[in-house]
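Quick log. Single chain, no ligands specified.
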Amino acid sequence: MSRPSTAPHPMAATTPAPGSFALWGDVAEPATLTVADLREGWRQHRAEVVFDCATEGPQHHTFVGPLLREVMAVARPGFDPARRKERSRFLLSVSGGDGHHAVLSWAEIDADFGNAPVLLATRMDHSELDTAGTQLVVPSDRCGARYVSAVTGIWIGVHRL
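-> predicted structure:
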């Protein structure tokens, strides 16, 4: 059974450069990626979404980007992919440049469980996000609270009590 190598924390030890983000936590290969990396290294998916924003009302956007689970695979999370119960214990904590955070479970995005098409967007509507940074997109959410702009880090690991 794997154990987390670091405690959950909203940011990696060093803050990545603007427009980039860190993958870290219980992983074999921590990484820092940019929006350009996301666009070039993974298949791009399209999501047309509508979500309720607490301050601005209904939002309608089209996002394009790779699936979160496919991007996280590059860091090689610290679980045995063949063991479903082990995978289901892992959490992802996503941090944004404005201090906003969201938490997802690996089971939520895993194809054997929830199979949610959560994206790390490289484009929003007609704008590339290279300068603004990638955005976490949770198409199944009715409210926009887990949409994280300008992602700076994604930690993965097991919550320890």
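The chain has a mean pLDDT of 90.
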